[in-house]
């Protein structure tokens, strides 16, 4: 769930631009960003920064932050993605509050337990080095929890019924014949195949002819080829299909791949739900003021967290994800 949402966050990063000069609202020096009246303070932001630092440093070592990439180094790459993540996290928090999706008593208790566990892991030294307080930790977990509620509601609203026919996966033998071989020769091959000759026998010695087995879903090929492929009964050969300077012959090996269809159906339903969440976030972004403090964001580096405990915010969110 967490990885999927983070991926979705990053896919929407172009929704936002900095607008720190807005006359409607001004951030204080210890505030990083605001979505409407929802504010992410600098101590709250550091909770997520420290999580990223701890995650990558524990796997790759401290030198990872200086690794050069196509555009800048690894640190600048992570910083850019993290800022987008924070903007969208607090946008989802705003959306939850706007829809009156408040935390239940049980969820609030889970937030409190997560904050307590995080602060214990951070320790006194970590608190002094970052300025992260129990209040900041609890606010960060509460925003995260409300965002999860918003996502779940969006998924419910985005539920769609995908039929087995829409998701159907078929298995075919596809023979591609270069047009230089000729239509007449292709027709002779088709006659032999329909008469029961083996594929290896028919294709033996043929130049400019290739064959492959494939599982096919709708939208994978042109509409003409797809229409014929999905109309074939199991064991049936197609007529000659002319397309892209080639002739094609299709043989239906299976008109309904049960397991593959079920998997494809689940993927289509997930895509529909994600698209609905995209739309909801885009609608929110179009109607609410989002500002951030670029001076505060640009002033920090990962190096300043070298002496901090390796604490990961996400180690304590299991009760907040349902």
Write a concise synopsis of the structure shown.
Helices cover 52% and strands 13% of the residues. The N terminus is likely disordered. It contains 11 helices and 7 strands.
Keywords:
single chain; 322 residues; alpha+beta; four-stranded antiparallel β-sheet; three-stranded antiparallel β-sheet; 52% helix; 13% strand; elongated; disordered N terminus
Provide an overview of this structure.
There is one protein chain. By secondary structure, the chain is α+β, with helices and mostly antiparallel strands. It contains 11 helices and 7 strands. It has helices spanning 2-11, 42-60, 74-98, 105-130, 134-157, 164-167, 183-194, 199-203, 223-231, 258-287, 294-298, and strands spanning 31-35, 38-41, 170-178, 209-216, 241-243, 246-254, 290-292. The chain has a 4-stranded antiparallel β-sheet with strand order 4-3-6-5, sandwiched between helices. Strand 5 (241-243) and strand 6 (246-254) form a beta hairpin. The longest helix has 30 residues, at 258-287. The radius of gyration is 28 Å and the shape is elongated.
Helix and strand layout, with pairings?
Layout: H1 2-11, E1 31-35, E2 38-41, H2 42-60, H3 74-98, H4 105-130, H5 134-157, H6 164-167, E3 170-178, H7 183-194, H8 199-203, E4 209-216, H9 223-231, E5 241-243, E6 246-254, H10 258-287, E7 290-292, H11 294-298
Antiparallel strand pairs: 1-2, 1-7, 3-4, 3-6, 5-6
């Amino acid at each position: 769930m967490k990885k999927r949402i983070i991926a979705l966050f990053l896919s929407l990063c172009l929704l936002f631009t900095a607008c720190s000069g807005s006359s409607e609202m001004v951030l204080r020096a210890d505030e990083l960003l605001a979505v409407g009246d929802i504010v992410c303070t600098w101590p709250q932001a550091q909770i997520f920064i420290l999580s990223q630092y701890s995650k990558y440093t524990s796997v790759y070592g401290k030198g990872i932050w200086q690794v050069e990439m196509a555009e800048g180094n690894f640190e600048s790459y992570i910083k850019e993605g993290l800022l987008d993540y924070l903007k969208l996290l607090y946008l989802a928090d705003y959306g939850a509050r706007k829809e009156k999706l408040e935390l239940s008593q049980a969820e609030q208790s889970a937030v409190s337990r997560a904050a307590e566990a995080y602060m214990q892991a951070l320790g006194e030294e970590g608190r002094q080095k970052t300025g992260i307080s129990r209040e900041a930790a609890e606010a960060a977990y509460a925003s995260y929890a409300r965002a999860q509620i918003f996502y779940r509601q969006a998924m419910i609203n985005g539920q769609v019924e995908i039929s087995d026919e829409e998701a159907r996966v078929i298995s075919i033998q596809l023979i591609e014949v270069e047009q230089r071989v000729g239509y007449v020769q292709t027709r002779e091959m088709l006659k032999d195949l329909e008469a029961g000759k083996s594929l290896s026998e028919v294709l033996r010695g043929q130049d400019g002819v290739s064959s492959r087995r494939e599982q096919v879903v709708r939208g994978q090929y042109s509409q003409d080829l797809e229409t014929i492929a999905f109309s074939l009964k199991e064991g049936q050969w197609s007529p000659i299909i002319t397309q892209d300077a080639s002739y094609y012959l299709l043989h239906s090996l299976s008109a309904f791949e049960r397991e593959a269809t079920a998997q494809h159906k689940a993927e289509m339903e997930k895509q529909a739900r994600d698209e609905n969440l995209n739309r909801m976030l885009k609608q929110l972004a179009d109607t609410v003021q989002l500002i951030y403090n670029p001076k505060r964001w640009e002033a920090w580096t990962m190096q300043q967290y070298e002496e901090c405990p390796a604490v990961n915010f996400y180690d304590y969110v299991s009760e907040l994800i349902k």
